[in-house]
Amino acid sequence: MGRIPCCEKENVKRGQWTPEEDNKLASYIAQHGTRNWRLIPKNAGLQRCGKSCRLRWTNYLRPDLKHGQFSDAEEHIIVKFHSVLGNRWSLIAAQLLGRTDNDVKNYWNTKLKKKLSGMGIDPVTHKPFSHLMAEITTTLNPPQVSHLAEAALGCFKDEMLHLLTKKRVDLNQINFSSPNLNHNNPNNFNQTVDNAAGKMKLDNDGNGIMKLWDMGNGFSYGSSSSSFGNDERNEGSASPAVAAWRGHGGIRTSVAETAAAEEEERRKLKGEVMEQEEIGSEGGRGDGMMMMRRRQHDQHQQHAFNVDNDLWNLQADDLINHMV
DNA sequence: AACGGGTGCAACCGCGAATCC
DNA sequence: GGGATTCGCGGTTGCACCCGT
Fold first, then answer.
1. What are phi and psi of A12, to 5 degrees?
2. Using the CB atom, is residue A62 less than 7 Å from strand C?
3. Which end of chain A is more exposed for a tag (fewer CB within 10 A), N or C?
4. What residue stretches are annotated with the Myb-like domain (predicted)?
């Protein structure tokens, strides 16, 4: 027995929406709201399924949507939140006024992933590839390691050659280590991260998905403050997260220093999460995680993303890298 | 001008969660 | 309490457009 379809497949139009359909949907929703998506196409005189209508409305027709290029500040927010939340596109999009999860997802997949890869950072773990290789060498047997390393280095070499021949990048001008300028008031941004992270659900074994905690060894990548300062496109309409980010240029996180410490921390976190989830169940799911994370931030005063990296100032196209 | 590959984005699909009855 | 229904999310696909050859 299969799943019940969301609508009758026959008599339902698919594919691109016409301006006429858009008008019908928009004017119907303006009058009646979005209470029941199944009934909306029927009542609005559309031969579409409710799901298609909802998608069209939320991703395109909603009047509060912002269309067009992502600003540098928005780009940074996406990367930062992705490092904390993973592919929780709706949560990330919630930090950017007028952007949908689909927008963010598309932008990540088409631009940001390549940009991070080009910087030598794994877009999944937000760790440098060199760090990942080091981890692999500690977990695999020597024969496996040598083969893997050989293959990976070959890949990397090809990519670097491709990158450098496509666009000449003066690596001497890239600053990997200058300290960040301003940590005066990171609290606003932390709060926003916490709020978003507070909505995270637990994974199957009960551990929170704490990618930020895994970014050990002091590695970080971040913005050049000048790139924010020069960004005029988003002035006046920035979301709280963007505004907070502009204010300080960094985000605090905890860092487990060693594997043993990480394990200990995970164990503690798990305990706290379980405890807070119980408390949170009275006041709404996710509250416990939020409180726990805030406490963690207070306990550990180290910063991730706190290093200026001028690679951010390069266009994504300059950093094209097809390494997975 | 024609072709082919790459890119960006709108739209679809399937699943799990939430809600309704 | 449990099945049916609806909603929301993340992954994937399809296609129009662009650009280099």
1. -120, 125
2. no
3. N
4. 9-61, 62-112
